[in-house]
Amino acid sequence: MNIALVGYGKMGKAIERIAQERGHDIVLKIATANRHEFTAENLQRADVVIEFTNPEVAKENVEICLKAGVPVVCGSTGWNEGLSHAEYTAVENKTAFLWASNFSVGVNLFFELNKQLARLMNDHGEYNVNVEETHHTQKKDAPSGTAITIAEGILDHLERKTRWTKETEEKPEDIAIVAHRIENIPGTHVVKYTSDIDDIEITHTAHNREGFAKGAVLAAEFVAGKQGVFTMKDVLGLNRMFEGK
Ligand SMILES: NC(=O)C1=CN([C@@H]2O[C@H](COP(=O)(O)OP(=O)(O)OC[C@H]3O[C@@H](n4cnc5c(N)ncnc54)[C@H](OP(=O)(O)O)[C@@H]3O)[C@@H](O)[C@H]2O)C=CC1
Ligand SMILES: O=C(O)C1=N[C@H](C(=O)O)C[C@H](O)C1
């Protein structure tokens, strides 16, 4: 498969290595310096684009690729408000779009565990819940996309919570998300339920960027040649697994 990388930083480089190990060719690599090569014509050489840049440029980059009719896997976080338009553009241009706040298999299992725990907590109002995330200091967005997905998973399944907030003085119906920035941390997420009697905590700790990169390549293999909007649940078969349960 021919892959175009839009964004060739920490993630772009990790993805390149894993894609090549899996027998794929990188036919285009775009960073700021060679952005002039980011054209519809050059994109035609790719079966799929993998986009990992930053919150400021991701929306425009994704639109360019989708309008060129090339399927896009996007991992850039911090632009959630633009996602629905990208989904619309994918459908309009008869191509595919898959965005994930986190591509690692472990985090996608963690998302399901988080939802299940939230469901159980409906009968146990004595517990409050908050989310904490820790990342490297170069990260541009806070809270992380993963922390937002976790909070959304809780909101969908725990009736007493109605919104997430970055404020520390949160109301009982809020889920507080606390973001820490520490040198060289690839990404750690903690969901903590606390009561006067005890605490329950689930944690996902990424040891490096391998999981994110491998998941992005799996997603690219999945969307190539398809049309529509997909998620990591489609890639990992988690929709099938939870059907009817
Ligand atoms: N979904 C997931 O699983 C994961 C998501 N992420 C997210 O992915 C994104 C990238 O992370 P990371 O690789 O660590 O970031 P880096 O800062 O290391 O890399 C960003 C890359 O984007 C390039 N870039 C910046 N502006 C443009 C532009 N206008 N056009 C084309 N390329 C551009 C940069 O080029 P240059 O250096 O030349 O400016 C650089 O190559 C972030 O949003 C991060 O939150 C990260 C890890 C996992
Ligand atoms: O910027 C990062 O590095 C990461 N970003 C993603 C996020 O915002 O959740 C995923 C991962 O945690 C690493």
From TrEMBL:
Pfam families: DapB_C, DapB_N. It is found in: Cytoplasm. GO terms for biological process: diaminopimelate biosynthetic process; lysine biosynthetic process via diaminopimelate. NADP(+) binds at residue 35. NAD(+) binds at residues 75-77, 100-103. InterPro entries: DapB_C (IPR022663), DapB_N (IPR000846), DapB_N_CS (IPR022664), DHDPR_bac (IPR023940), NAD(P)-bd_dom_sf (IPR036291). Its main location: cytoplasm. Its EC number is 1.17.1.8. Keywords: Amino-acid biosynthesis, Cytoplasm, Diaminopimelate biosynthesis, Lysine biosynthesis, NAD, NADP, Oxidoreductase. GO terms for cellular component: cytosol. Pathway: Amino-acid biosynthesis; L-lysine biosynthesis via DAP pathway; (S)-tetrahydrodipicolinate from L-aspartate: step 4/4. It comes from the Bacteria. Residues 106-236 form the Dihydrodipicolinate reductase C-terminal domain. The keyword Lipoprotein does not apply. The active site is at residues 135, 139. Residues 1-103 form the Dihydrodipicolinate reductase N-terminal domain. (S)-2,3,4,5-tetrahydrodipicolinate binds at residues 136, 145-146. One of its GO terms (molecular function) is NAD binding. Homotetramer. Belongs to the DapB family. Catalyzes the conversion of 4-hydroxy-tetrahydrodipicolinate (HTPA) to tetrahydrodipicolinate. This is 4-hydroxy-tetrahydrodipicolinate reductase. It comes from Taibaiella soli. The lineage of its organism: Bacteria, Pseudomonadati, Bacteroidota, Chitinophagia, Chitinophagales.
